[in-house]
Amino acid sequence: MPRHLISDAHEWMKEIPTVPTYYPAKPQPRERAWRNQQGKKTLLSLTLVWHSEET
Fold it and tell me: Among 3-7, 10-14, 20-24, 44-48, which stretch is predicted with the lowest mean pLDDT?
């Protein structure tokens, strides 16, 4: 029985696509907005930094 499960796992691993499905060629507007926000200072991050410097 365990041998069969291992072979099934190997077959499953072979079926994984090489191109990640979570990164489409044309991202949706919501995804573009999220990527554009990466690295930018948000009000929350600035507030957290300011609050941590007070202590």
Answer: 3-7
The answer, yes or no, to whether residue 1 has pLDDT greater than 50, is no
Q: Residue written as tokens 């291992």?
A: 6
pLDDT, position 26 = 64
Structure tokens given for 19: 């191109």
CA atoms within 13 A on the CB side of 4: 1
Phi and psi angles of residue 19, each rounded to the nearest 5 degrees, phi first? -90, 125
Cα angle 27, 29, 31 (rounded to 5 degrees) comes to: 55
Residues 35 and 27 sit within 8 Å (Cβ to Cβ): yes
Q: Is 54 helix (H, G, I), strand (E, B) or coil?
A: helix
Amino acid at 17: P
